[in-house]
C-alpha cells in the first residue's frame, strides 16, 4: 500500500478530525491515498462514516492501535 | 467470553440502543426520586460552594435559593448523579483500554474551550436546564420550555458552526507527504484491571448507601453510573446532534436522540399516570430562547456540552478541563446576574410554566410530542441524505463522482 499523504490529527477533538479529513480529501487528486491517524474516540465512528458518505472509499477497515485509530482513504 | 468482552468493551454501542436505555432509565429515575436526570443545576451549586469557601456571602442570591444549596454535593442526589456519571464513564473507559492524556496541539483550543464552556454554562442555566433537563429529560416531562430550548439550540449551533469554521478559529493541520505517522508503541494493558477495581469499589459504595439507609443517594449513585456508562459507550454527543448537521449532514446522533426521547416520553407518561405524579414543568420565557441560543453557540465553541464534556474529560481529553471550569464559571455568573443585574425581572418573569398534559390532557400531550419528534427525525433523515460538506444542499458540485 503506497501512502501519498499522512494527516496526523492526534490530540484534536471533534469536529476537527472530520473537517480536516474532508478538507484534505477535497484537495487531493482522485486516486491518491490518504492516511489519517486520530485519537479522539468519536472519530473512530464519524470519520469513516462521513468519508464514505462523501464519496471516498476506505482502502481497508479502520485499524485500532491502543488508543489510536488509523484510516486509509482513497480520494 | 472473549467475544462478549470484545462486543461490550472494545466496540462502541449503537447510539440508538444507548439513548433508548437512557430514556427508560431516566423515566424510572423520575418515578423513584421525583427529580430528573440533570447536571448543570449541580454545576451551579458547585460554583456556589466555591464562592462560599472564598468568603462570599451568597445567602441572599435569589438563584441559589431557587435551586437550593442544602448540604454538600455528596449528600445530594443531584450531586451523585454527576459523580456517578464521571465514575461510570471512567470505569468503561478503563475497561476498554481507552484512556489517554490527549493534549491538543493547537493551544488555542484550550482558550476556545474555556470561552465556549462559559457561554454554554451561562446559557443553560438561563434557560433553567441544559441538554438534559431542558431537552432530553424535559421533552418527556411535557414541559413546553424544552421545545423552545431545542429550537433555540438549533439556531445557536448554526451560529456557532459559522464561528468555528472561520480559519482563525479552526486552525490548520499539518499534512505530511508519504507514510509519515509513527503510531505509538503498544503498551501492556493495565487499564482494564484498574477499571475492575474501581467498579468494585464503586459498587461497594452503592451497597453502603443502601445499607446505611441512604436509599436515595444509593439510587442516584447507581443511576448516575448507568447514565455515564451509556453516554460513554454510545459516544452520545448532543453537540454533534446539531453541529454535524450544519457541517457535513451527519445525523446519526440526531436520530438516536429523537428515538431516545420518544421512548422516554412514553415511559414517563406511564409512570406519571400510574403513580399519579405531577410532571416537572419549567418556566417558558424569553430567557429560554436566549439561553438556548447561547447554549448552542457555547457547546459548538467548546466542542461538547455539559454532558458530553463529562466522559470526554474522563477519556483524558485535556481540552475539556477548561470546558468544565468554563461551565461552572458561566453557570455561577448567571446565578449572580439573575437578580443582581436584573435578568430575572427582564426576561424570565414575563414567562410562565406551561405543561402539555395540563394544556391538552395526557393523550393530546403524547400525540403532539411523538408527532413533533417524528418531524424532527424526518428532517434529520432528509438532511443526512442531501446535505454535504462545503456544499450544503446544492447538487452536482462534488469534485469526485463515484
From TrEMBL, chain A:
Pfam families: TusA
InterPro entries: TusA-like, TusA-like_sf
Stretches assigned to the UPF0033 domain: 7-31
Gene3D superfamilies according to UniProt: TusA-like domain
UniProt cross-references to PROSITE patterns, sorted A to Z: UPF0033
Family (UniProt): Belongs to the sulfur carrier protein TusA family.
Matching NCBIfam families: PRK11018.1
Official protein name in the record: SirA family protein
From TrEMBL, chain B:
Family stated for the protein in its record: Belongs to the TsuA/YedE (TC 9.B.102) family.
GO cellular component, one term: plasma membrane
Topology within the bilayer: Multi-pass membrane protein
Protein name: YeeE/YedE family protein
Pfam families tied to this protein: Sulf_transp
Cellular location(s): Cell inner membrane
Transmembrane segments: 12-32, 80-99, 111-136, 142-160, 193-211, 217-236, 256-277, 283-305, 317-338, 358-383
Highest rank taxon of the organism: Bacteria
Keywords: Cell inner membrane, Cell membrane, Membrane, Transmembrane, Transmembrane helix, Transport
Protein's organism: Paenibacillus rhizosphaerae
Amino acid at each position: 500500500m503506497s501512502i501519498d499523504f499522512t494527516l496526523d490529527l492526534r490530540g484534536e477533538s471533534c469536529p476537527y478530525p472530520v473537517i480536516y479529513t474532508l478538507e484534505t480529501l477535497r484537495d487531493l487528486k482522485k486516486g491518491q491515498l490518504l492516511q489519517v491517524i486520530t485519537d479522539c474516540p468519536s472519530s473512530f465512528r464519524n470519520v469513516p462514516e462521513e468519508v464514505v458518505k462523501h464519496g471516498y472509499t476506505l482502502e481497508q477497515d479502520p485499524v485500532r492501535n491502543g488508543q489510536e485509530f488509523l484510516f486509509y482513504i482513497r480520494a | 467470553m472473549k467475544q462478549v468482552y470484545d462486543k461490550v468493551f472494545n466496540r462502541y454501542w449503537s447510539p440508538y440502543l444507548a439513548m433508548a436505555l437512557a430514556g427508560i432509565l431516566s423515566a424510572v429515575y423520575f418515578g423513584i426520586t421525583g427529580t430528573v436526570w440533570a447536571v448543570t443545576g449541580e454545576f451551579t451549586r458547585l460554583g456556589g460552594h466555591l464562592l462560599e469557601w472564598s468568603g462570599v456571602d451568597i445567602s441572599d442570591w435569589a438563584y441559589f435559593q431557587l435551586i437550593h444549596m442544602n448540604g454538600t454535593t455528596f449528600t445530594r442526589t443531584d450531586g451523585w448523579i454527576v459523580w456517578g456519571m464521571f465514575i461510570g464513564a471512567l470505569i468503561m473507559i478503563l475497561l476498554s483500554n481507552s484512556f489517554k492524556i490527549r493534549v491538543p496541539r493547537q493551544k488555542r483550543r484550550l482558550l476556545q474551550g474555556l470561552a465556549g464552556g462559559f457561554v454554554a454554562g451561562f446559557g443553560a442555566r438561563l434557560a433553567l436546564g441544559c441538554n438534559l433537563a431542558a431537552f432530553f429529560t424535559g421533552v418527556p416531562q411535557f414541559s413546553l420550555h424544552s421545545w423552545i430550548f431545542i429550537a433555540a439550540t438549533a439556531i445557536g449551533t448554526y451560529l456557532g458552526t459559522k464561528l468555528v469554521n472561520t480559519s482563525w478559529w479552526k486552525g490548520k493541520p499539518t499534512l505530511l507527504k508519504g507514510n509519515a505517522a509513527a503510531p505509538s508503541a503498544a503498551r501492556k494493558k493495565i487499564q482494564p484491571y484498574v477499571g475492575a477495581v474501581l467498579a468494585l469499589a464503586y459498587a461497594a459504595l452503592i451497597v453502603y448507601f443502601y445499607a446505611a439507609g441512604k436509599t436515595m443517594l444509593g439510587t442516584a449513585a447507581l443511576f448516575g453510573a448507568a447514565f455515564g456508562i451509556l453516554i460513554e459507550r454510545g459516544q452520545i454527543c448532543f453537540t454533534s446532534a446539531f453541529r454535524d448537521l450544519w457541517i457535513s449532514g451527519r445525523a446519526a446522533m440526531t436520530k438516536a436522540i429523537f428515538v431516545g426521547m420518544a421512548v422516554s416520553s412514553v415511559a414517563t407518561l406511564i409512570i406519571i399516570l400510574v403513580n399519579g405524579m405531577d410532571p416537572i414543568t419549567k418556566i417558558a420565557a424569553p430567557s429560554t430562547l436566549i439561553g438556548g441560543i447561547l447554549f448552542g453557540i457555547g457547546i459548538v465553541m467548546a466542542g461538547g456540552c455539559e454532558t458530553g464534556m463529562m466522559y470526554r474529560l474522563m477519556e483524558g481529553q485535556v481540552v475539556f478541563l477548561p470546558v468544565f471550569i468554563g461551565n461552572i464559571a458561566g453557570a455561577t455568573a448567571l446565578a449572580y446576574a439573575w437578580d443582581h443585574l436584573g435578568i430575572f425581572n427582564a426576561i424570565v418573569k414575563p414567562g410562565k410554566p406551561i405543561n402539555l398534559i395540563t394544556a391538552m390532557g395526557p393523550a393530546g400531550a403524547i400525540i403532539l410530542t411523538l408527532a413533533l419528534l417524528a418531524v424532527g427525525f424526518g428532517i434529520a433523515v432528509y438532511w443526512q441524505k442531501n446535505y454535504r460538506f462545503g456544499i450544503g444542499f446544492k447538487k452536482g458540485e462534488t469534485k469526485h463522482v463515484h
